[in-house]
Design goal:
The protein is α/β, with parallel strands linked by helices and 184 residues long. Helix content is 37%, strand content 24%. It has one domain: NAD(P)-binding Rossmann-like Domain (Rossmann fold), CATH 3.40.50.720.
Length: 184
């Protein structure tokens, strides 16, 4: 049983969060929507004490980091972190990685990157991959091609792809088509 921390676990990563809960892991979920967090916790009454919900907006880095520290203190160690953080939350993303790699050096961190405006690989953080090659992973979100048209990935596809990325544990994982990049 691992302790898995997920930032953004009630939207596109809800399926991944529920998968890890159903696998018997301790799961700490941080998200802005407290109703969605409570709905996930209520769905798993037999997992009481194994699901920590943290209603917090990662754009407030100081408060969000208190949530990360609370999760780490409550279960003593974070084995795996999945971070779906928009570019507006880069400060939090940096802070959580710095904290985890300093205090939980064996943590595997999976950073999801996706963008409607620029190629997601331009968001890549090469310095983290070079400094922590065994522990820092990046997941790039692309799109699906349907004949002559394209569409964004569904929440289900993102969750299933994230689960697969964790299972395969590669430094880089793509969900959908990333190259060539199409801006909508």
């Amino acid at each position: 049983m691992k302790h898995i921390f997920i930032a953004g676990g009630t939207g596109m990563l809800k399926g991944a969060a529920e998968h890890f809960i159903e696998q018997g892991h301790i799961v700490s979920l941080m998200a802005r929507n407290s109703d969605r967090l409570e709905a996930i916790r209520a769905k798993y009454p037999k997992r009481k004490g194994k699901i920590l919900t943290l209603s917090q907006d990662y754009r407030d880095t100081e408060k969000a980091m208190k949530s990360v520290i609370k999760a780490a203190d409550m279960y003593s160690y974070i084995d795996l972190a999945v971070l779906w953080i928009h570019t507006s939350g880069v400060e939090f993303s940096e802070a959580v990685k710095e904290f985890l790699f300093k205090h939980h050096p064996k943590t595997k961190v999976y950073q999801l990157w996706g963008s409607a405006t620029i190629h997601p690989k331009k968001l890549s953080q090469k310095e983290w991959r070079e400094q922590y090659p065994e522990h820092y992973r990046e997941i790039f979100l692309g799109y699906k091609q349907n004949g002559d048209s394209a569409r964004w990935l569904t929440d289900r596809e993102i969750s299933e792809g994230t689960i697969r990325a964790v299972e395969l544990d590669k430094p880089e994982f793509k969900i959908g088509i990333v190259d060539p990049w199409i801006v909508y």
